[in-house]
Automatic annotation (TrEMBL):
This is MarR family transcriptional regulator. Residues 3-140 form the HTH marR-type domain. PROSITE patterns: HTH_MARR_2. InterPro entries: HTH_MarR-typ, MarR/SlyA-like, WH-like_DNA-bd_sf, WH_DNA-bd_sf. Transmembrane segments: none annotated. Coiled coil: none annotated. It comes from Actinomycetospora endophytica.
Length: 151
């Protein structure tokens, strides 16, 4: 397998997993959720974030982060609240509906992983996961993939 094919196969596996997740989220009442929304909800985190902080975490401009927040707010997955330490700032927080999407995503990803493990076998899955950890030069997953893919 060439280096280019490796990259495309890894991306294809990623895409398949994420597409399957979003198909299931749609069936479970969240048809408008897109992959970029998941990255943003993860980047906002449990304590919330300003648009500037979100932009840094996603690797996009404050304006792009604000547009993402607008879309998530229109869907009811986040809301802007006053910063208790600075009334001029707004903090974006994940709503109960947004937390449901995150909770369902974890549940669905676990089921999808188990399905794939059944397809390739327990030993091969563990070996593949160990190999992927070794290939990731960053050492930890990054949530700025949406910015990276859209550049």
């Amino acid at each position: 397998m060439s280096g280019a094919e490796l990259a495309f196969r890894l991306f294809g596996a990623f895409r398949s997993l994420v597409d399957d997740l979003h198909d299931e989220l749609a069936r479970r009442g969240h048809p408008a959720v897109r992959p970029a929304h998941g990255f943003a909800l993860q980047a906002i985190g449990a304590r919330g974030a300003t648009a500037t902080e979100l932009g840094v975490r996603l690797g996009v401009s404050k304006q792009a982060a604000g547009k993402t927040v607008d879309g998530l707010a229109a869907l009811g997955y986040v809301e802007r609240t006053a910063d208790p330490t600075d009334a001029r700032r707004k903090i974006v927080v994940v709503t109960p509906a947004g937390r449901e999407v995150l909770r369902l995503s974890v549940e669905i990803f676990e089921r999808l992983r188990a399905e794939r493990e059944r397809d390739v076998g327990v030993t091969r899955m563990r070996e593949m996961e160990a190999a992927l950890r070794g290939l990731d030069s960053a050492g930890a997953p990054r949530v700025d993939a949406s910015a990276w893919l859209s550049s």
